[in-house]
Amino acid sequence: MTGPQHAAAPLELGDLDEEEILARILPLLRPTQHDDPDAGPGRDRTEIVGPGDDAAVLAAPDRLIVTTDSMIRGRDWRDDWSSPRDVATKLGAQNISDIAAMGGTATGAVLTITAHAHTPFAWVAEFSEGLGQWCADAGVTIVGGDLSSAPEGVLQVSLTMWGTLEGRAPVLRSGARVGDVVAVCGSLGWSDAGLASYLAGEAEPEVGPGTPAPLRNTAVWRWFHRSPRPPWESGPVAARAGATSMIDLSDGLVRDTARIARASGVGMDLSREALARDFVSSFAEGRSSGQAWQHVLGGGEEHSLLATFPSATAVPRDEKAPWWVIGSVVEGAGVTLDGEPVEMVGWDHFRTDRQ
């Protein structure tokens, strides 16, 4: 008889050398992609030399938009809430929404993974597979990056993404003018509501045909916090429609609207009626009115788009990703709600008392 069988210890990064790790994850980051005959200028045509050499070589037929974001475990996600695939989705969303906010279309990216030696390889593999699929869906090609070791317990991922303006001028934060309307594309407050649910220690809702609406809503908000889906296709649409300014809502509606106001030298007056009807009302079941307004005005990590347009008739009409008029550009400075000052709420990376 043979003795008891012992399961093999889970594979860790420290069990492999750098070449072995890359050989395993690069195919996950770059799944087979089929040519898209409808791809716009620059899509799938920028890469000349991809991973394998000291650097990638790209063709740049147009001005490039470049952005970067990083996430670190324990600060930007928690393993008991988010799967590796969730982390990949959020990392991609943070970057592509910045490209979209300039009126551009994302085309390529480089990835950095910084991890301690005892990081389970399974985590890295699932993250890579998730990011590879997300990039394929978004039309983004990962052309290289960096893999680095870190002290015990540290796990950080970073993505640098670029995109094309397709011959257009970039849409800046500084272009809003008095008389413009303010519009938003995407949700407001969902991610913050999901985060609040997690921080409150609420149990994960089991959603089924008979699940009450408040629990269904909580499940949606939690999912959106873990895996946001920005309306990235709407950035170029807004640019073509004549948007005068635009920003990605990553740090909260009031804080990010104030950034356009400051850059443009104008005031931004938000409509309580429009926000209550179109966004606060979505929290009618499961959140108090006060909580709902906090989520909508101050909730971060939404990655929706906020833009100004010369008139209401210039706002794009897209049933799949509608734009909602929520205010106007006025003389003055800062952000008001129906003409009254509104507290500057939102996320600040280094002032954690301001949320």
Task: Provide tags for this entry.
355 residues; alpha+beta; Phosphoribosyl-aminoimidazole Synthetase, Chain A, domain 2; 13 strands; globular
Give a structural overview.
With 355 residues, the protein is an alpha+beta fold. It has two domains: 13-31 and 40-164, PurM-like, N-terminal domain (60s Ribosomal Protein L30, Chain: A, 2-Layer Sandwich); 173-341, Phosphoribosyl-aminoimidazole Synthetase, Chain A, domain 2 (Alpha-Beta Complex), CATH 3.90.650. 30% of the residues lie in helices and 22% in strands. It has helices spanning 18-29, 84-101, 121-138, 190-199, 213-226, 234-240, 253-264, 272-278, 289-298, and strands spanning 47-49, 57-58, 64-72, 105-115, 141-149, 155-164, 181-185, 245-249, 267-270, 304-309, 323-330, 334-337, 340-341. It has a seven-stranded mixed β-sheet. It has a four-stranded mixed β-sheet with strand order 3-6-4-5. Helix 2 (84-101) packs parallel to helix 3. The N and C termini lie far apart (63 Å). The relative contact order is 0.15.
